[in-house]
Amino acid sequence: MVVSKEEELLETLRNVIDPEIGLNIVELGLIRKIDINETDDAAKITMILTTPFCPYGPQLIEQVRLVSNQIMKGGATITVGTELWDPSMMEEGAGSDWGLF
Fold first, then answer.
1. Would you tell me the crossing angle of helices 57-71 and 5-13 to the nearest 10 degrees?
2. What pLDDT digit, counting tens, does each position of 75-91 carry?
3. CA-to-CA dists, residue 83 to 5, 17, 44, 79, angstroms
4. Residue 74 scores a pLDDT above 60
5. What domains does the chain contain, in order, with CATH numbers?
6. Which of 27, 31, 75, 83 is deepest in the core (most CB within 10 A)?
7. How far, in whole angstroms, is CA 6 from its chain's centroid?
8. Tens digits of residue pLDDT in 47-59
C-alpha cells in the first residue's frame, strides 16, 4: 500500500505530545491543514493551540517544525491559525480517557 506524503507526515506528527494534556496533537485535532508542495518536497502546516495563550505553544510549534523537517526534504512552514479549539475537534475516542465522550 502506497502512503501519501500527507499521511506519512500526519503519522509522524503523532509523536508530538501536548505535555499538559498528554495526548498527541493529531488526536487533539490541532493540525487543521496540510498543504504539500510535491515539487519542492515542502509542507505548509496550519495548526491551532488548545488555548490562545497556551504556555506550551512555542514548544509545540517548534516540535511540529522539527518533526516535519524529518519527513519533508524541502522543510515545513508552520502557521498558527485563529480557529478556537474545542473538544469536538478531537479524533473519535481520543477524549475517552478524560470521560468527555
1. 140
2. 999 999 999 999 999 99
3. 25, 20, 17, 12
4. yes
5. 5-84 (3.30.300.130)
6. 31
7. 12
8. 999 998 899 999 9
Residue type, 79: T
C-alpha cell at 48: 491551532
Q: How many residues does the chain have?
A: 101
Map the chain to HEC letters.
CCCCHHHHHHHHHCCCECCCCCCEHHHHCCEEEEEEECCCCEEEEEECCCCCCCCCHHHHHHHHHHHHHHHCCCCEEEEECCCCCCHHHCCCCHHHHHCCC
What type of residue is 51? T
**Which pLDDT belongs to residue 101?**
47
- Could you give the CA distance from residue 38 to residue 60 in angstroms, rounded to a whole number? 25
**Which residues sit opposite 52 in a β-bridge?**
none
